[in-house]
């Protein structure tokens, strides 16, 4: 724990940032050695901008910072890291074609006689990977072959190398299993005991109360709370974040569950997905639960044609003949949309406008004589900005300038505009604040009332239990069970999720750890 009377490691005074409009205004904070400061707020509140200013990725428009009482104004991330200020960002800073070992020690590769000392590099990497629980993965595995959760752990491991005086963690547990979260918290406790200060950014309020001793809340770019966290309930923090109480229940409204829109029969691919069969009905929200690496995303990619199935068939509606889906283009033509888990690399053209991203899947409707109609694009974008409450200047703003939650809404807007009857969602609310989550939940309920079928993969079991009619569970690549609403329990779903790993030594160790 930090000493409240000790001098501040880092102090911020009147920090503001203006692009075209202000995104931060007059933020003043202090953090001491060994202190864990929870930083929270809705998407678009300014959390990431503030942390990027601290870590040298963005320059403030107004205000000043001091490190150890001396003026501090890093002009780059490298300059901040040289001073011991490190950041694990939501946007992972990894090179997918390089191995885990190479990513970990990219700027300090051990050498011998002018060549990379691979045995030493492997040993260093294994030691660093073990610190975050990545003991069962070959250090020479290309990072691009890892799931997002494991990539996140590699990024965390990379930032724990070398001198670290202040560590900024931006949504570090969004894609981690409970075991990985436990390992991360152990690392945080170790760093805290060594006097490292931590700024911990998250929307998971119970998690913040577990790990942090102080809370700072941003709303619309302004600091509305800076206090010890013990005195605040989760409900009180939500009200500070969004200006209103969070909804404990979600009214899905009256819906008619109809005939199957999608029938999957024995669809599989190698060791990733064992032959799986299920139906998705009109007006239904079907969730897929399971541990990271259980094959959930891989199953969605097979349905969407992003990966080629080794076996099995997909039927659309009541068609007797299987659909020919060997690519996403064919899936879209068949009426299937997919909102991917990695919106930045797979879901959006970040430099392009909201308008371009929204209309991308249906360009013919905003074109005249083969040329794009800018006014028509702007009208469509303006409609979805209003409907989905996307925080932006207007439809011309680049998608890359938006917060994570608003970027996700832009991806969803594209598929709403395309009007596909079958919608696949992979981690639809990862890294999104409570207010934006409920906006998306209500949107999903509305889509189901329109008769669309929604298939949703989520690592948040409470989320699935809140919004789904049925929950299918995958374990070790197999679809092992399906639960109806009213018949499931968190314990039963978790037991099913672990069931496929019962004979695996590594999985048994994870369960007992």
Structure description:
This protein has 513 residues and is of the alpha/beta class. It has 3 domains: 10-84 and 163-242, Rossmann fold (3-Layer(aba) Sandwich); 259-335 and 421-513, P-loop containing nucleotide triphosphate hydrolases (Rossmann fold, 3-Layer(aba) Sandwich), CATH 3.40.50; 344-419, no CATH class. 34% of the residues lie in helices and 24% in strands. The strands form 6 sheets. The chain has a 6-stranded mixed beta sheet with strand order 6-9-10-3-11-12, with helices on both faces. It has a 6-stranded mixed beta sheet with strand order 17-20-21-15-22-23, with helices on both faces. A hairpin with a 2-residue loop joins strand 22 and strand 23 (478-484). The longest helix has 16 residues, at 178-193. The two termini are 25 Å apart. The model is unreliable at 504-513 (pLDDT under 50). Pfam families: ABC_tran.
Principal-axis shape equals globular
Helical proportion, percent range: 25-40%
CATH architecture of the largest domain: 3-Layer(aba) Sandwich
Quick one: CATH superfamily of the largest domain? P-loop containing nucleotide triphosphate hydrolases
The third-level CATH topology of the largest domain is: Rossmann fold
CATH class of the largest domain: Alpha Beta
**Gap from first CA to last CA:** 25 Å
Compute the number of structural domains: 3
Helix tally equals 18
Largest sheet: 6 strands, mixed
Low-confidence stretches: 504-513
Mean pLDDT: 86
Strand order of the largest sheet: 6-9-10-3-11-12
